[in-house]
């Protein structure tokens, strides 16, 4: 199993010289399972670059899983070129607390007056699937399971198991003050890699030093990610969903602090490739 990060930011893209090394695109991950299994998590702005790469591999057949449908996780889909190419095939999975299917949500973002092109012009074959916690999706030699997270309008964490390797993708989740998230703890137990929402520092989250509090916004901290990784006996922790205000230097310091608490920690960056057959599985941008 191999993972490549195409977008690692949260909330909104952050393109500037000070964030160029970590990258400014919003959430998108590519996971390769077995010989030809392709799984994509979320279609933030990072999916545009993934689409450019996939155009060299036609025809494309993939499964796209949505953690949730906030803007930073869906806004790149209209610019994902493989969806416009006949002969490509996509199974699209997601859930929502709204009375809408994942198909309706994605189509509505491509309607007037917010977008000039309707999703109907996409020539690829698409199959939409609505998910609920506890569902298991079987791929060719791998399986995907999911659990609910603590986030406004709901969000799912996903686990992929292939042979004896496993990852959990847990973006956009807010920790609890009095306990660990039992849903996530159960899903992540014993995985090789946990990708966790570390958007805020404790000072930002709690509104210390004159800052506004971010409690209730649906995001977490590196320290809380470490707690989950330790309790679930995770082998490697990937710090993810970086705040748009965190420049390269800031992310480096968070990674440095994380490694003092949990040595096998790496801050996600665009282009990061995680190979679960290798040790260490992930290379730091800053080493």
- Uncertain residue ranges: none
**Record field, number of beta strands:** 14
Radius of gyration: 18 Å
The averaged pLDDT comes out at 95
Q: Report the biggest beta sheet as strand number plus sense, adding barrel if it closes.
A: 7 strands, mixed
Question: Order of strands side by side in the largest beta sheet?
Answer: 6-5-4-3-2-1-14
Give the H and E element order.
EEEHEHEHEEEEEHEHHEHEE
Percent of sequence in beta strands: 25-35%
The helical percent reads 10-25%
CATH class group = Alpha Beta
- The CATH topology label is Metallo-beta-lactamase, Chain A
Overall SS class: alpha/beta
Silhouette: globular
Number of helices: 7
């Amino acid at each position: 199993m191999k993972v490549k990060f195409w977008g690692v930011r949260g909330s909104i893209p952050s393109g500037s010289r000070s964030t160029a090394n970590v990258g400014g695109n919003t959430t998108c991950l590519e996971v390769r399972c077995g010989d030809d299994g392709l799984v994509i998590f979320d279609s933030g702005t990072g999916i545009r670059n993934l689409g450019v790469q996939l155009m060299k591999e036609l025809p494309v057949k993939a499964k796209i899983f949505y953690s949730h449908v906030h803007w930073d996780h869906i806004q790149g889909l209209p610019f994902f070129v493989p969806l416009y190419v006949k002969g490509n095939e996509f199974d699209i999975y997601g859930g929502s607390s709204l009375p809408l299917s994942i198909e309706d949500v994605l189509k509505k973002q491509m309607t007037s007056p917010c977008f000039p092109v309707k999703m109907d012009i996409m020539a690829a074959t698409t199959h939409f699937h609505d998910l609920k916690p506890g569902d298991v999706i079987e791929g060719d030699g791998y399986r995907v399971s999911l659990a609910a997270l603590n986030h406004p309008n709901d969000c799912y964490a996903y686990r992929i198991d292939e042979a004896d390797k496993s990852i959990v993708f847990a973006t956009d989740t807010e920790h609890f003050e009095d306990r660990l998230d039992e849903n996530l703890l159960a899903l992540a137990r014993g995985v090789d890699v946990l990708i966790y929402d570390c958007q805020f520092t404790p000072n930002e989250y709690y509104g210390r030093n004159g800052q506004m509090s971010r409690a209730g916004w649906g995001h977490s901290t590196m320290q809380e990610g470490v707690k989950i990784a330790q309790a679930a006996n995770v082998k490697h922790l990937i710090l993810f969903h970086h705040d748009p205000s965190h420049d390269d230097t800031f992310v480096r310091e968070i990674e440095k602090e994380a490694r003092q608490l949990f040595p096998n920690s790496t801050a996600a960056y665009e282009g990061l490739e995680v190979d679960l057959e290798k040790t260490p599985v992930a290379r730091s941008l800053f080493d």
